[in-house]
Amino acid sequence: MTTAKDIMHSGAQWIPRHETLDRAAQMMRDLNVGALPVADENERLCGIITDRDIVVRCVAMGHDPAKMTCGDMTQGTPRWIDAGSDVSEVLTEMEGHQIRRLPVIQDKKLVGMISEADLAQHLSDEQLKSFCEAVYARA
To answer: What pTM does this model have?
Structure first.
């Protein structure tokens, strides 16, 4: 059985929800990533912030990224997967919620992220086709 931990990119890092969006952008640049899981004061997942969120929902709206926090941008219920989950569960979660990045949690701690690039490296062509149809299909 292939698990989430087998296909994830390890070394993912949280950003605290009280950190500003300019700090999130700096972390994304330094880590060469497009998304960061956002953690509350107990290091529990409370959302994900993307580079697109910063540009579209902050800068383009005339807000100051040095004043807005990651917590200001998080919304909805964050999605995640347990490290021991089968890859089919990963696909169900990502396809069902049309998401492109999924935090991987083990013992209530962030251990990695699964992105489209990770899927492309580990899935069959048929699995990848199904994923793309589900995530990118227009309603």
So the answer is: 0.88
